[in-house]
Amino acid sequence: MENTNKGLIIMSEMKSVIKKIKKTFEGSFEGKGVTAPQGMIIGNLQRYGQMKISEISEKMALSNSTVSGIIDRLEKQNITERIRSENDRRVVYVKLTEDFRKNSKCSHLEFEKKFEEILNKATDDELEKIREAFEILNRLF
Predict the structure, then answer these.
(1) Is 8 within a domain?
(2) CA-CA to 137 of 20 to 30 Å: which in 56, 60, 80, 82?
(3) Strand bridging mode 92-96 / 80-84
(4) How many domains does the chain have?
(5) Residue 86 located in a structural domain
């Protein structure tokens, strides 16, 4: 790898992986009336319970305004609702509606299972290399 091209090559590979992840998981949302980003927010709320938009943004590596827009659309579908904190009225939490919780067959567990199935195709050595690569990228950024 030539020095001047390393960054571009790595960025290109990352974009390719992200695109493939989106494509793989978008199929999981078909027929459920939600997009992949909406499904990821739903999964985070299922796993962690009510969260602030800033917490969701951090977990998804998206801006607060992007997440807020997605939440707006989920609210229109009666999937999420915003709730003001009783202790500090400036703080707003997002949670799944009770109706959605009762009627949803969409679960973060099915997405985790699918991701595990994909990663199970890798050897232990490959998985360790992937983990190390992300650890290095996190440290560098």
Answers:
(1) no
(2) 56
(3) antiparallel
(4) 1
(5) yes
Tell me whether residue 114 is in a domain.
Answer: no
Residue 81 within a domain:
yes
On whether the CB atoms of residues 96 and 79 are closer than 8 A, the answer is yes
For residue 9, what are the CA distances in angstroms to 1, 16, 56, 97, 126?
8, 11, 30, 43, 19
From first to last of the 141 residues of the chain, give the pLDDT tens digit: 555 688 889 889 989 988 887 777 766 665 667 887 888 899 899 889 999 999 999 999 899 999 999 999 999 999 999 999 999 988 999 999 999 888 776 666 777 788 889 999 999 999 999 999 999 988 988
CB 108 within 8 A of CB 47: yes
Instruction: Look up residue 54 and give its amino acid.
Output: S
What CATH number does the domain containing 60 carry?
A: 1.10.10.10
DSSP 8-state secondary structure symbol assigned to residue 43: H
92 φ, ψ (degrees, to nearest 5): -120, 130
Are 37 and 60 contacting, i.e. CB atoms less than 8 angstroms apart?
yes
Please answer whether residues 85 and 92 qualify as being in contact, where contact means their C-beta atoms are separated by less than 8 angstroms: yes
Which pTM value belongs to this model?
Answer: 0.66
